[in-house]
Specification:
Order of helices and strands: EEEEEHHHHHHHHHEEEH
Distance between the termini: 44 Å
Largest sheet: 3 strands, antiparallel
Structural class: alpha+beta
Number of helices: 10
Number of domains: 3
Strand content: 5-15%
Oligomer: single chain
Helix content: 40-55%
Length: 318
């Protein structure tokens, strides 16, 4: 009989976290199967084979780990009851085939997706998905939900919930788009079926509001500029991104994210705007120079100005 254990590997990923694997040992040989999860050393209990309480969503993920281990054990139990003796390679094939059979919950799939984003350095997208996931599961109390259970009716109920919590149309649309992107990703991965797609009936486009854009006053800009950020260290990047955009004539976030050091030419920034493909040359004002100096001093090993894309050659997920 095989020995089945969920372990944390000793070699870290590029983001410094340690991956969680399913380890199956049989006839003194072992097979390791990635569970697409990772955490810090202090967040894993190797004896109990589970996440500690200091890990986000540890309860739901530990429940998922129990299901995974039970599934692995059932594969061997079934083979024994049929009088068969399967190899480790045969086990892996059966386990992965079972995994593709839509047996993963939305909660676990979403967490896996967030971890994949972190591994690839897309921290902004990962943070956005984490916030969206927290919001949705505050509404849907049970963590056991499959993609086929996400219906147009459920989305309407979620919309009502968001409205009762003072979310605007634009705020609701952002959260719904996160769910839609996740559902599309699940279809590509084989965990959801196109015929169950709820966004054919639930239209996010109805949430579009009128053009209510308002410019900040100069007094508001001054308050942001003079804000004592030492009291709020977690807002350093947020303040810098806002002021950089403001003093570069409204450079959008995507162009800022992809801005490279070789786009900075002495007293000018020269770049091609992604949306219009137009060439822009912007004079570097003192506030912009201070921000550039701040990030230059970090001496990061990438060509990007801002610490958003943490690896070379990354793109936004579509």
């Amino acid at each position: 009989m095989a020995t089945i254990k969920i372990i944390q590997r000793t070699k870290s990923l590029s983001n410094g976290l340690y991956p969680i694997y399913l380890r199956i040992t049989k006839d003194r040989k072992s097979k390791f199967i990635s569970l697409n999860l990772s955490c810090e050393k202090s967040q894993w209990n190797d004896t109990k084979e589970e996440f500690r309480k200091n890990y986000s969503n540890y309860k739901s993920l530990n429940n998922a780990l129990v299901q995974i281990k039970n599934r692995a054990e059932s594969i061997f139990t079934e083979s024994i009851s049929n009088g068969e003796d399967i190899t480790l390679d045969e086990f892996e094939a059966l386990f992965l085939e079972y995994k593709k059979d839509k047996k993963i919950s939305v909660n676990v799939f979403w967490e896996d997706y967030i971890q994949d984003l972190l591994k690839s350095g897309r921290t902004g997208n990962a943070r956005f998905n984490k916030d969206s996931k927290i919001s949705f599961f505050k509404f849907y109390k049970s963590k056991i939900l499959y993609f086929k259970d996400i219906t147009a009716e459920l989305l309407t109920q979620y919309e009502v919930y968001l409205r009762t919590n003072n979310n605007s149309n634009s705020g609701i649309a952002v959260k719904m788009r996160a769910l839609r992107a996740l559902y599309n990703h699940a279809i590509v991965k084989g965990y959801a079926k196109k015929e169950n797609y709820p966004f054919d009936n639930y239209k996010i486009s109805k949430l579009k509001g009128g053009n209510n854009k308002r410019a900040l006053s100069l007094d508001s800009i001054k308050k942001i500029t003079e804000m004592n950020i030492t009291q709020y260290p977690n807002l350093v990047d947020t303040k810098n991104y806002f002021l950089f955009s403001y003093y570069t004539g409204g450079m959008n976030f995507y162009d800022m994210m992809n801005l490279q050091w070789n786009d900075v030419k002495e007293d000018r920034i020269v770049y091609i705007r992604r949306k219009t493909k137009g060439n822009f040359t912007i004079k570097i004002l003192p506030p912009v120079r201070n921000i550039l100096d701040y990030y230059k001093a970090q001496d990061r090993k990438t060509k990007y100005v801002f610490p958003i894309l943490l690896k070379e050659g990354l793109t936004l997920y579509r």
